[in-house]
Each structure stands twice: as structure tokens, then as C-alpha cells.
Amino acid sequence: MLSHYVIRDRYGRPGKGNDKGAVEGLVGYGRRNFMVPIPSFPDWHAFNAHLEEQCRKRQGDVLRGHKVRIGERLKADLAAMRDLPGTPFEACELQSGQVTSTSVVRYRGNDYSVPVAYGHRAVWIKGFVTRVVIGCGAEVIAEHSRSYDTGDMVFDPLHYLALIERKIMSFDQAAPLQGWELPEAFKTLRRLLEARQGKAGKREYVQVLRLLERFEIDVLHLAVKDALRMGAVSFDAIKHLILCRVEQRPPRLDLDVYPFLPRTNITTTSAASYMSLLAGGGA
Known about the structure:
The protein is an alpha+beta fold. It has 3 domains: 18-80, no CATH class; 93-154, no CATH class; 160-247, no CATH class. Helices cover 40% and strands 12% of the residues. It contains 10 helices and 7 strands. Strands 1-4-5-6 form a 4-stranded antiparallel sheet, with no helix packed on it. Helix 6 (184-197) runs antiparallel to helix 7 (199-209) and helix 8 (217-230) crosses helix 9 (235-247). The longest helix is centred in the first third of the chain and has 15 residues, at 44-58. The chain is elongated and about 115 Å long.
């Protein structure tokens, strides 16, 4: 960070508040004026937004011994400062790694999944306080919430769907999919597809799940519910419905435009069939 922002470090001794008196004084001021009584916020982002608002209000004050407001003095200081670097400093630990045969990368004793297409490849890992980012070359290929356990395995089910689609019989036993909670409409869709097509229906269900690689789950969920309501239970129909939602256009689920949808084959009954029925009835 020192070389990134071109600043000079100055260390304070433990327990010696007088080494950084201005910092200690500002912390005390913030505690007394911004956090008394003890505030309550849903998360850290809301708390930080509150503190920022209070600090901006204080810029309108004039301190003892000065004739101009704090905000005006701040503008003068900023005008004398150097510009910040074009890219912010990433407060993270950067290290290299290798993707294993099970498509995971180890970082500080825990395994994090990446898409199966990157198996056995060299990657870089950025460990932030709350997340772990994994990349290959100039591309970010995975991002997870950071685990501080030991021996933990953090999976993203989407990383393994491409492989499961090829080895469809492993769908129910795949460890990365265990505990993956999806809306009830997805379960209904799977049950109908498998009832109608068996193994092929299970593969088509995985193809539907792979739409999550490109679309948010809320949008896909609505498309699945539309397909169930319309009786258009197929991957192609759901893909068409989700595209119509994104592009805000009405769906056109007719066979002339979408020949890949299932067709109903009605054969002509021959006279011989009637004769066989009559012969059976007479007997």
C-alpha cells in the first residue's frame, strides 16, 4: 500500500495514545457525538453510511481558532494533494494456486470451487477479509464468501453443471449440489421432465439449471413458473420465455416459429383396425 499511494509510514507504540493524539481525539469525538446512545443498524454498510452522513454535516462547523468552515479547509487541503492512482489499492493477499482434478483451489486450508473447464490449470487467488476471488490469466473465474474454518469445502453448484450434464446419472449424488435449495417450481419441473422423458428429462432439467450461468435465479424462476402454467415443459420453451422477459417482448410459443418444441403425431385409423375391433367384439 505504501508504494501504491506513495505515502510514508509512521508507527505508534502499543498502548501509547499520545503517539497519535489527533487520531485518538477524533475517535473519541466520533464515539461521543455519533454513537451515543448506542445506535442500531441492520449491517455494516448502513452503519458506515450513517457515520459518513454525520461527518459531512460536521464539515459545516467552524472550529475554535479558525475563521472558515471545516469543509472549506478540506477543499484547500485537497487542492494541494496529489491525485489518487487510477486504480484503488486492493487490500488482499495475492498468491498463486493450482486447480485440482475435482475442480477446487486450496487457500489457507480450505477448498474453493472453480468451473470444471479450468481443471489442472494454474490460477491466482486473492484473499480479502470477506471473500476469495480466483482468476486465470486476466479473467476472474470464481468468487466465494471466505471461510475461516479448517478443511472446509466451498462449492458453487453452477461450476459443476457442465460436467453433470455429460454424466447425468451422477446428478443426485454430486457433492457440490447437496444442500442447494431451489424454489418449489424447479422441483415440479424436474418431476414432470423425468416422468415424460426419463434420463433425457433429467439431462434437460440440468440444461435449464445451466441458464443460471447467464441469468439471475429470480428471472429464471418466473420463466419456469410461466412454462408450468402454459404446459410448455421443455428447455427450449423456458429459454424462450426467459429471453422474452429480459427483452420485454411477448412470447410466441407456436410450432411454426419453434419447430424444436414437441409435436403431436396423430395417425389415420385404417378400416382394418375397425374390422379387428368388430371381430373381437363379436367373439
